[in-house]
User: Which sequence fits this backbone?
């Protein structure tokens, strides 16, 4: 047992050592430049631990690597400290779908949630404290229910008390996120939402086991509540994969196995992020971090009789992760990789254009917004931004045509803000939609 723990720690620390050379990107940058107020050095380090504050890129990446390595260790101890849990920990360590938490500093909250739950399962007498900590994060509020499928189901008995204790905070968090992210379509419930949820459920499971597309901005389900609504509600392969997993869960009610528990773990932990009630972006790889523990446990149980296949899967995960790691070099390469990995993601082109615009490269920004519009012709912000650039280039009549397209495609629920932007754009005040 001790040797395996040391091995898990060592391979994680060695493999992720190169992340110490990476810089900040995306949400790391505003967090670094706008730190929250802290009372003393201890409070500062606590804010740093939970990723509310940044110290410097090297220390932040070192902490992220250490926490990810510790989580992998406790995956091994929590799931039985045997050969299967050892393989699970290795698969989890190098799963490329976990990159937004194993590499990116801003994903640390999801890592801490997973770490707390694994510690709770390892040290059962301390489980109430660590489950309480886990439920303070949105990803961990319902996730302890996944313990019900294990032999240690009893550690969730205090969970209703923790829900009562943290309900107001969590309700406020959800309300704030819904206010920022949700539009009218997100607030409606109909049969299409079931299709959307099952598709998302199937997509994350597929991505976790077969990391076919690793990127910061996925084209899958983009604009699901706006111009991409029809496509989002259409049944596809991920819908049928999701249906297959759900059917397996029904079958497992009568034939319960370790694989069943792994799929149950995944199902419960991914549930807040399947777009049934959207309060966040449609798809983000950091949401898979905690659920992936269950799927890796299920996969380890399936493959355990085939050592060569286990070695092949682990080596393929490591290779894929090694080659996507440089995407976190800085904010520039994050976007370049996103466009390369998923060129159909209009939002990645939009962010690239915004960066170019901020650097004064007006025509280059225009080209990128036009590329984004080719991918998604009816996006409000794309048509507004193209129109704004054309106004800057003194092409007034052409700009008005794009403003009209934008006006015809305002997302329901955003009329007040959109009309204000349109008014300012037509007056030549040139607001850029971010």
Assistant:
């Amino acid at each position: 047992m001790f040797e395996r723990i040391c091995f898990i720690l060592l391979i994680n620390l060695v493999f992720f050592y190169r992340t110490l050379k990476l810089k900040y990107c995306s949400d790391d940058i505003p967090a670094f430049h706008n730190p929250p107020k802290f009372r003393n050095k201890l409070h500062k380090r606590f804010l740093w631990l939970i990723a509310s504050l940044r110290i410097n890129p090297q220390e932040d990446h070192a902490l992220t690597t250490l926490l990810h390595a510790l989580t992998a260790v406790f995956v091994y101890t929590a799931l039985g400290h045997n050969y299967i849990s050892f393989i699970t920990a290795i698969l989890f360590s190098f799963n490329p779908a976990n990159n937004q938490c194993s590499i990116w500093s801003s994903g640390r909250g999801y890592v801490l949630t997973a770490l707390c739950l694994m510690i709770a399962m390892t040290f059962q007498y301390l489980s109430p404290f660590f489950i309480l900590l886990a439920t303070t994060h949105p990803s961990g509020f319902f996730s302890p229910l996944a313990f019900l499928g294990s032999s240690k189901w009893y550690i969730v008995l205090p969970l209703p008390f923790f829900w009562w204790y943290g309900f107001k905070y969590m309700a406020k968090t959800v309300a704030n996120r819904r206010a920022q992210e949700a539009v009218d379509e997100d607030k409606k419930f109909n049969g299409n939402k079931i299709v959307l949820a099952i598709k998302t459920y199937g997509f994350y499971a597929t991505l976790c086991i077969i990391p076919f597309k690793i990127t910061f901005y996925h084209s899958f389900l983009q604009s699901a509540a706006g111009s991409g609504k029809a496509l989002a509600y259409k049944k596809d392969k991920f819908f049928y994969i999701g249906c297959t997993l759900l059917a397996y869960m029904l079958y497992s009610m009568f034939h319960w196995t370790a694989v069943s528990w792994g799929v149950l773990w995944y199902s419960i932990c991914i549930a807040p992020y399947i777009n049934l009630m959207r309060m966040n972006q449609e798809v983000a790889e950091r949401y898979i971090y905690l659920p992936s523990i269950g799927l890796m446990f299920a996969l380890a149980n399936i493959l355990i009789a085939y050592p060569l296949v286990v070695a092949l899967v682990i080596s393929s995960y490591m290779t894929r992760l090694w080659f996507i790691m440089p995407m976190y070099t800085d904010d520039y390469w994050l976007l370049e990789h996103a466009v390369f990995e998923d060129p159909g993601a209009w939002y990645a082109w939009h962010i690239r254009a915004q960066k170019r615009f901020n650097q004064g490269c007006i025509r280059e920004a225009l080209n990128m917004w036009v590329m984004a519009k080719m991918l998604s012709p009816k996006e409000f912000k794309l048509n507004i931004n193209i129109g704004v650039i054309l106004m800057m280039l003194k092409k007034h009549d052409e700009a008005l045509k794009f403003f009209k397209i934008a006006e015809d495609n305002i997302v329901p629920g955003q009329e007040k803000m959109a009309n204000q932007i349109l008014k300012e754009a037509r007056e030549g005040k040139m607001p850029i939609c971010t």
In short: Residues 345-426 form a domain with the Serine Threonine Protein Phosphatase 5, Tetratricopeptide repeat fold (CATH 1.25.40.10).
